[in-house]
Amino acid sequence: MEPITEGQPSTSKEPTSPSSPPQKKNITPVGLGSYCMEIGISEENILSEYLLPQPVLKNGTVIELYNFCSKKLSLHVFCEVMKKIVQPDVRDGESIDINRALKLKGRRLHTQYTTMKRNHKDTTTLMEEMYKHPQRSSTTPRNITPRKKRLMNVIQEKNSKISTLKRKLVEKEKKNKNMEEEVIVHKAEKEILESTLLKAINDLEKMSGSAHGNNKDELDMLEAKVNMKTSEIDNLTKKLAKINPANMGKKIQRRDQKIAQLETSLQEKEEEIEGLSMEKEKLQAEKVKIEVKLSEVQEKKRKLGRLVSYHRMKNTGKARAIAFQSESDALEEEIRECRERLKRLNKENRDLQEMILFLEEEKSVATFKDGKYKEEVREVYMKLLNLNVGRRNIESVIRVVLGKLAGMDIDRLPSEALTSRIFVEAKLLAEMQAARAMVIGTGNTIHFDETSKFGDRFGSMQITTETGSYVLGLFSMDCGESERLFHYLKQTLTDVASSLSEGDDSQSQFAKVVFGFINTMTDRHCTNIKVDELLVQWRNELAPRLFENFNQLSPSAQRDLTHVNSLKCNLHFLLGLASEANNGLTAFENMSRKGPFKPGSRFVKEGESGSVRLVRTVCKSFERHGSEEAGVMTNFAAFLNEINSQSKLISFKGNRFNVLFWNGAATYYHKSNFESFFCIHGVPNRLLRAVKEDLEDIIHVAGCRALGIIDKLITGPFWRVLEKDEPYVALNDRLHHMQIKFQEWAEDATPLLNEERLFQDVEVHKDCLYKAVFKETNDTLLDTLTVEAIELIMSQFCLVVVRQLSEHLPGGSLSNITEKLQEETRYAPKTNQLGESVFGTMDYLLRQRPSASDVNLASTIMYRYNHTGSWLSTLSSDEKSKLMATARKRARLTIETFGERRKEVKKRIFEKMMKKKREREMKEAKLSDVKRQIITEVNNVGGEWLAVEDMNEKLDAMSNNGDKRAALSWQIKYHKTVLNTNVPDKKLLQLSSQGKVYSNEQLVNNLSTIIQYVRLTKDALGNTDVSEETVCTVKSAEERKKMFEAKKKEMKWKLGELKAQKQKSAESKAKRDAHETEKQTKTIIPKGKKTKLKPDFLVGKRVEHTFQDEDDPTKYETYFGTITRIVKSGTKRVSDTIYEIVYDVTDNSDDDSSDTDVSDGEEEPETCFQYPLLEDYFDGCLKVIDD
């Protein structure tokens, strides 16, 4: 027996008596049981009309009847049988309510019985209990729902109002009848009045009749409306009584849901109706007042008639007629005003009635048409998803907004799965938008970059056109190598081209996209620079296939079609300035400090200057995003609030480019605040002690002041220059001017301390930080140290300008500004800020949606940055429908494609991981062999030399210079490879430098320095005391001047070397470009000459080999070596032959080191490489110098 969930079972039960339980009677699941048999009811006579009434009835009988009727017959039969055997007190019009009460009572008993049976409880007490049939209440039946009760109250109120209106109508009719009799009586007397008086009286009668007719019509209309509502309620009640019990559970569930919706809607409408009813009552009161005034007017009319009779008898009819005429005019005016007011009130009443009808109508929004959701629905979903509304909450948001604000209902909305697919459609629409802008634009610039977020590597690609900037794609990457980044860029461009392809036009659309840009904008990383070269190479390969007449064009025309202008982000130049500022401050501190630096409580990082450390620890302690464990951000903010000040520190996270210089100025500005705060709060942890110790060091304070001056006069104005609406090539003059000023300030930085500007036409923000760093200190030593720090920083800036801005300086690739270059870079931005913004948004989304897929992130960012929603609103309805249909068709394929690409990325990551594992194992095995050999050789010369005296003794025992050199070499290699000794100068661990082999005397000096440094380091580690005195002692001015002059000479020499390298690189590039042009014109090497070359002609030759530097692509280095053998012969082409070459040991950088002694002729495995050298030979990068 399946329970029915509607209604709550009765919880009142009498306690059972376990001592003498009555005999338990069971009922069958469907048939009638023993309780019905006791009173003579069986399946044969249940429909009989002669069932006897029962004075006493048990619950078991009712439960059996309800069970049988609900299964076999109907609940209507149950009600009829119950009325026969119970005979309830039924009045006229209450039969429907009694039926409902009997059903509800039977259902409750049946539900209680089934619940007890299911829980294995004793049902005997319930079955034997006397049945209490529903009692008719004096007000409303007990089984009437609150909604029906409210409706009955409304009906009762309407009936009472109708009765009142009927009573008033009878009174009005009676009054009208009396008035008509009086008019007949006085009709003869009115004949003696003048025609004007007669006309006025007729007008009054017409007005009275009109008012009476309007009132009667309104009452009739209200009565008809009440009757209509009453008939609707009766019809609904009859329909409810005729409901078929089949599938009752599902119907009741649907009914309950519908009732809940209707009750909510009804409650809102009832509140509105209540307000309208109050308004209607006010109108009724106004109407009553008007009727009272009308009665008064009629009374005055009767009095006037009596006066006429009186004055007729007094023979003063004419005078009285004049007076009556004036009073009649006044009454006529008053009646006219009442009529206008009544007309206005009737209009308001009609408006309110129309509003009631509007609210009572059931309104809904259609969302589904022709087997799919409407485009408006999909567009709303796209916009809500773009506003960060979760896909699980979109349906609720739409329903709440429509229901609460518009009173409307909506039946069907997309599921979560379809919502995700709509999100992909948004991505495809944004892609189409960007592709269209890319095709029609001129002078386009593409941006690309890559980054790492939470262990995953991502890349992005954008484009800037004359109409704006757009995001082309966001994708996952397996690594950050140039070739892989270029692969994903090709993939993105192919996707963009496919969004424009239609049928046979795909090739032309692909050509428009691939050749639809002339500039690239990247940061200054070597990976991105290499991508530019691969991009040009790819376009050279595609051009002959995509353009029919490409081979017939001249070389210059071909180059114009395939080349790109490699533009660099100038904001990343600020990062280079920050790095070099740290290097300059490190040199400044080393030359200014007298004696060794004592760290105390400070956190010393390798390569970090003390001033930069102070800025970092200050932000960690006092900035509001600082350390949660040791920071005092809240206490410091309260302290500043007390003195009416605010913190000027900003977070390093999210402020990448100028943050070091800004926070340097803020640290100097808050120095006195920090000292006062420490007096109040104390320094309870090591972080605060480190800040306090650095603040007491005048060298670090001077460094922070120098950073602040650079921020206010150099980096800040330069950033504002980048934000100006100027062409990209307009930076050339400014950057050249910057180079000149840096060189001047490197010689004498006093003008900077006197507020000399870098750019005279750029605003300088003279805020509180500006006033603090330029405020007179009356401290000569601080001012002197600040100038010295700035001079060394400017010397470092000169180096970074030449390294990173060489293309803008005279002789650079962008220095020759032609009309063509100006036109090509007309719409090019000066920074790659768009790419940084995209990655910032992606970082935020990954924190908000940790499980978001790649396509979800791409859809959000592309739809938001491209403003696709606004773009769709500008399209015609037909064009928008076409685009949305295309996106709908391609959505599934796009989801599958992104999934496959993600799998491919994971697969490549795993393969790369396994490859690194194999390489690491080979390297460890190789290193182990090298260490074993070094240890053996060191043991042969008496083991490690621990002291300089020991070294001298061992060397004196050797007579051969070759043995001495070998012993020195093995000892140095032992320190470098086996002990991993860290020394300040890496050159000490080398055997040669700048291509020159060290002499034995140099090796002795280097090894002596290494041994002494190792001993000092061990002593320092054994005597470390964090509580030691950390007071700084500054060297004298003479000592500092000597060291500064030497350092400046060194920096000038480095600058000259760097310029020479840049010039050499430019010349090499020019040669290669000319060589490429010759190759395109097929004049470099005759085709037959290549084929006649024998691969073995290079074997045994000494060669000069030129390479491009991996870290700086603009830099080229030359190595010398000998080709030893052929490793693998080329099968298809001779140029594919692989050679083995052994390079001479040289050192072209200060950071790299070599372990090979050339004079010994010892062979190191690192110098042996395998390359296809014929290609380099043909390209001019390999020259034979010894035949």
UniProtKB/TrEMBL annotation:
The keyword Mitochondrion does not apply. InterPro entries: Oligoribonuclease. Keywords: Coiled coil, Hydrolase, Nuclease. Residues 1147-1166 have a biased composition (Acidic residues). Residues 1-29, 1059-1082, 1146-1166 are annotated as: Disordered. GO terms for molecular function: 3'-5'-RNA exonuclease activity. Residues 8-25 have a biased composition (Low complexity). Residues 1059-1081 have a biased composition (Basic and acidic residues). Residues 148-362 form a coiled coil. The keyword Coiled coil applies. PANTHER family: OLIGORIBONUCLEASE, MITOCHONDRIAL (PTHR11046), PTHR11046:SF25. This is Uncharacterized protein. It comes from Holothuria leucospilota (Black long sea cucumber).
